[in-house]
Write a structure and sequence with these properties.
Oligomer: single chain
Strand content: 5-15%
CATH class: Alpha Beta
Strand order of the largest sheet: 6-5-7-8-9
Radius of gyration: 28 Å
Number of domains: 1
Order of helices and strands: HEEHEEEHEHEHHEHEHHH
Structural class: alpha/beta
CATH topology: Rossmann fold
CATH architecture: 3-Layer(aba) Sandwich
Length: 293
């Protein structure tokens, strides 16, 4: 009996050690980082994680040494930004499907005025409207769905409103988000000029409806913010461009080319050209090859 008791005293600690060893075979989950006491950090927003992962490779390098297209984590802002080729001659164009095509009328006009164009936006979006893939202009910017250029571009152009009109956004919603966007852009690029292009439409007396109303509304927003505003709420009628619509809303390439000439003149008159046109505007626009619709 004494031998059994001694054996029991020897085996019991060994069993306990074995249980502890099995229990430690899987490490306990590490605590989640938090931004405030007791509150877990929010999950990465759509598009933000991918951008952040790209920026990790570049964060230790000086921006001047990074290739064009690199996503760079700006230490001054803490945000991911894109390296562009010549930011001093770049116009940032925030817009929807009117601006998205590479030969769109806003892009053509900005190029004719001497700018390289960096497009930030997507079809189906607006000041309030989103398309299911990305948010509206201000939410997409804040979440990192699309990124802005690193450096100091001289001109920021905000175009849109058509999808807000189509999706029933209220005046209050449009104004609130437009003002949020303008505030964010001014903070990001304090030295840049900012211009707004309104909502392309037929005109109040020719069936422009809500689109023309949104164009007028955005004009008031721009005026209060001290921004140049180019109203396009009657251009389809005024410049006989209704015939150039491919689906009642979007332009054929002929329509893009036609409106680009008009917008170039408006931008030039507002003082947004980097270089004097000297008769070259028409030549520049004339080189555009019509794209398949």
């Amino acid at each position: 009996m004494r031998k059994a008791s001694a054996l029991s005293r020897l085996v019991a600690p060994l069993i306990a050690v074995g249980v502890l060893s099995v229990g430690c075979g899987q490490a306990a989950p590490s605590p989640q980082p938090s931004t405030t006491a007791g509150q877990p950090a929010p999950a990465a927003a759509p598009g933000e994680a991918a951008a952040a992962s790209k920026s990790k490779k570049a964060v230790q390098q000086a921006p001047v040494n990074l290739p064009v297209g690199t996503v760079y984590r700006n230490p001054a802002t803490g945000r991911d930004e894109v390296i562009v080729g010549d930011v001093r001659h770049t116009a940032v164009l925030i817009g929807d499907s009117q601006s998205q095509p590479s030969n769109s009328w806003p892009r053509q006009a900005l190029k004719a005025c001497g700018y390289e164009v960096y497009f930030a936006g997507m079809g189906g979006t607006g000041f309030v409207a989103s398309n299911g893939k990305t948010g509206n202009y201000i939410d997409a910017l804040q979440r990192g769905d699309w990124l802005l250029p690193y450096g100091a571009p001289p001109l920021i152009v905000i175009q849109g409103g058509g999808n807000d009109a189509a999706h029933g956004a209220t005046d209050a919603q449009i104004v609130a988000n437009a003002e949020r966007l303008i505030t964010a852009i001014k903070a990001r690029y304090p030295g840049a000029k900012i211009a707004m292009i309104g909502t392309l439409a037929r005109g109040a007396n020719y069936g422009g409806g809500r689109r023309t109303q949104v164009d007028t509304l955005l004009g008031h927003v721009a005026e209060r913010a001290g921004l140049a505003f180019i109203s396009v709420g009657d251009w389809l009628s005024k410049y006989n461009a209704v015939q150039d619509l491919v689906d009642g809303t979007h332009m054929t390439q002929t329509g893009h080319n036609k409106l680009a000439v008009v917008l170039t003149k408006e931008l030039t008159a507002a003082g947004f050209t980097l270089q004097p046109a000297n008769g070259r505007v028409s030549d520049t626009l004339g080189l555009v090859t019509p794209a398949a619709q």
